[in-house]
Amino acid sequence: FKPENMVRRKKVLITAGGTFEPIDTVRGISNRSSGRTGSVIADCFYETGWDVTFVHSTSSIRPKNEPQHESSFLTADELQSEMMRLLKGVSFDACIHLAAVSDFSVDCVTDANESVLTTNEKLHTQDALNVYLKKRSKILDTIKRYALNPEHLKLVAFKLTHSADPAQRKKQVA
Q1: Which entry of 1, 63, 116, 125 is 20 to 30 Å from 134 by CA?
Q2: Distance from chain centroid for Cα 149
Q3: Count of CB atoms within 10 A of residue 116's CB?
Q4: 3 state SS of 83
Q5: With contact defined as beta carbons under 8 Å apart, do 142 and 84 qualify?
Q6: How far is 126 from 145, CA to CA, in rounded Å?
């Protein structure tokens, strides 16, 4: 047995589940992504001998097989930070980005008089509130920028589209 004869296991980074963007300490905006597709794909890679890093939402369905590396996220910012950390530190062969990342985060919350409210505690419910959202940058656009091996990283991403027209769907994911 010689170290030079060892075959390096291929490494895959898989994201799964949906993000949660807080409005206050108890409320937020989320989506219904269960992480099921990511967990099934993680199992397939694991069963074919890949070194699997599984980054999932706190509420995500988990793979049957325990991944070699695992971490969780709640918000889109947490997911982006964890992906940056991993991509800068590990030379992945593939990244399968399945997480349903919010397109928006909360910019501010105001009362009916447009006074900005503090969101570091539970907001009172007796009055109407205005929640202002801001557009988030796309995590997908940064993956290859942070990768140790951007020219060799195989990147696969999934996008939920709302159009039944095949041409429109193709345009949205191209």
Answers
A1: 125
A2: 20
A3: 12
A4: helix
A5: yes
A6: 46
Alpha carbon 146 to chain centroid distance? 15
pTM of the model: 0.86
Question: Please, what is the Cα angle at 102 between 55 and 42, to 5 degrees?
Answer: 25
Q: Are 16 and 70 in contact (CB under 8 A)?
A: no
Q: Would you call 61 helix, strand, or coil by DSSP?
A: coil
Other beta carbons within 10 angstroms of residue 76's beta carbon come to 23
Q: What angle do CA 104, 99, 145 make, to 5 degrees?
A: 80
Over residues 51-68, the pLDDT tens digits come to 999 999 999 999 999 999
Distance of CA 98 to the CA centre of its chain: 7
Q: What is the pLDDT of residues 2-45, one digit of tens each?
A: 555 556 789 999 999 999 999 999 999 999 899 999 999 999 99
